What we know:
This protein is an alpha+beta fold and 127 residues long. 18% of the residues lie in helices and 35% in strands. The chain has one domain (15-113): CATH 2.40.50.100. It has 4 helices and 9 strands. Strands 1-2-3-9-8-5 form a 6-stranded antiparallel β-sheet. The chain has a 3-stranded antiparallel β-sheet with strand order 4-6-7. Residues 24-106 form the Lipoyl-binding domain.
Amino acid sequence: MSFEVPDELRYLESHEWTTVDEDSVRVGISDFAQDELGDVVFVELPDAGDEVEAGETFGVVESIKAVSDVYAPVSGEVLAVNEDLFDRPELVNEDPYGDGWMIEVAPIDGVGYDELLDADEYDAQIA
């Protein structure tokens, strides 16, 4: 089975994706991760204004199969939370790279893109 791995995104080994937009970083979970979880039924996310730490848990995704932690790719302040996920957690399954995004963060000391996997590296990891 092949999974969508957009070239313009960067990835964590723990299956989160990230994209940079001006001063913020948007984060979600990959197509592979949502497929492994199965039908997502609940998402727990931080509040806007909360601080997240790179490599640390910022939220939880609960599916019919499992409960999984979600990890921050960068340290910083949460600027926005995708509140649509509270009423429609299935967006994570339906559109993991679009409407299923989770948080936006203002990174404290830039984005450590060098430490993140590019699309080819991530694709090789999940193959």
